[in-house]
Amino acid sequence: MTNGWHDRTVLVTGADGFIGSHLVERLVERGASVRAFVYYNSWNSVGWLADVPLQTRNAIQVIPGDIRDAERVAQAVKGCDYIFHLASLIGIPYSYVAPRAYVDTNVTGTLNVLEAARRSEHLVRMVHTSTSEVYGSAQTVPISESHPLVGQSPYSATKIAADQLTESYHRSFNLPVVTARPFNTFGPRQTARAVIPTIASQLLSGCKELRLGALTPTRDFNFVTDTAEGFLALAQCSEAEGQVVNIGTGEEWSIEQTAGFLMNACGRQVPILCDEERVRPAGSEVNRLIADNKRLRTLAGWTPSVPFQEGLAKTAAWIERNLTHFDPDRYVV
Predict the structure, then answer these.
(1) Topology of domain 195-217+252-289+307-325, per CATH?
(2) pLDDT-derived band at 1, boundaries 50, 70, 90
(3) 49-55, long-range: CB within 8 Å, 24+ apart, which pairs?
(4) What is the mean pLDDT of the chain?
């Protein structure tokens, strides 16, 4: 991919998050002028941006704010050439108990970004972040972008709404936006609300048994640097405007297989115990996810570069160095 980022002003919302922090790193490496929109808090935490090299942190403009605040979002967007909208309330279990928060953040927050973007005089392209959860359990495999959208959790329903809102802004206002739909991204800096760090942190803390939810669901796991490269490729692909594009490997692994690979990576073999607290409601569990990534390969020339087990080893090594970020004895929604 050619480097068209030098001296471009780029806004990353959700820059303090898992994928956002990796995206910021790659943009800085390519010479972009990066504005990192992070969730304001009184203790001045910049989230996972604290984990990036100091040289990278010093090169970015941190903008604390709240994606639900339209005026603050407009300030951040002003003068930007590119926008990567990743700010989102994630985590499916929490959406069962706090659905309104998901609507306010994922739907209204996206509306704020879209409104600011369509008033921008400098915008080249906006990349909006979706999720494979909007497909629900696979009705056809692999899952292409034309697969039906099924809201199997309040979280996925709000992401469907945000995606549709984004598409409407392209149709209604000719906004130069593309919707990136990553499948299950994993890697360093992911929190224990996701299955891979949940497994690895339990193993590395010396657990005698591995406590998990359902073992049979399959996922298309994509290493975070590959996901970030997919975002960058789509931002520079004019042919992708107005389209939804999957970011995934095209491979699927069950939770049980993933646990076995992580036991090997961590050097520990323990029995697996099904913890009912971790099992999703029956009608909400997504049983199978596997991406059809032909559109991304064709439009942007993207291919995944990190094999699954290599990515698991890198993730486990990072978690081992950062176990203080995890509480493996407690299930966190």
Answers:
(1) UDP-galactose 4-epimerase; domain 1 (3.90.25)
(2) very low
(3) 49/15, 49/16, 49/21, 49/24, 51/21, 51/188, 51/189, 52/21, 52/24, 52/25, 53/25
(4) 94
